[in-house]
Amino acid sequence: MKSQDQDNIRLSHAVRDTHFRIRQFLRDYATESLEPHMSWVEVLVLSYIYDHQDKKCRAKDVVDHTTLSKASVSQALTLLQGKGMIQVSIYKKDRRVKYLALEEEGKTLVERFRETFDQMVASLEQGITKEEKEITLRVLALLRENCLALCANSSKKKEKEGI
Description:
Layout lengths: L3 H30 L6 H12 L5 E2 H6 L5 H13 L3 E5 L7 E5 L1 H21 L5 H32 L2
Antiparallel strand pairs: 1-3, 2-3
């Protein structure tokens, strides 16, 4: 008879494996199908800027709100600026602060990517019923909550131990 731990391990492995495969599929699409050629990091940076057009978007904001490193964002911004996708303006009072804005070509590319992305998601979800989606979302929400609780407990334990 299987223990509950074995079932949980299988579930977490399945979630990780599925996440990896979907992410790889999207990365492959981004790097192979977009014209002009774009890396996955460039697509993520462009998408972030697109979603925050109404605010003064800075390079620091992209780093703080994504899983990308400062170096990756900096490199992507240089490449995107060189491709004419974004405009970078430097704040006069502090030259380290860079404001980002999309050029028309950048907006068009993000919109085209998102249109195709929606089609890809629909293909990935083909054959999954509404009920199955709802159950999956509930299970994933529970996994996320459990993970957050475990992380919080681990942090508290480390604080107590002075680590």
